[in-house]
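User: structure tokens for this one?
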Amino acid sequence: MRPRLPKRKRRLRELSERQAGEILNLFGVHVAEGYYQRISLSTEHFLTARQLVGAPKSALRTLDALHLAAAVTEGLALMTADRDLAKAARRHKVRVILVK
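Assistant:
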């Protein structure tokens, strides 16, 4: 199965097909070299994500809430290019690496 390229960014013409391919390849290299810690999601992660989405003034999307819930529950740093997600993570005392 061929990995999916960042379709939204390509559709918005923010990335070319070549750039999207380079990003996907670099991500594959990073995974192979152990840059990321993989965790299995549990019921606790999903319950925490539900609380995050339902919190007052929360503008988190479901998958963003799940990523943040994993970081909160596991005590992990969160790396993102999404300023809103970074802001939400900081509110929940999660260490954030904002990619520009």
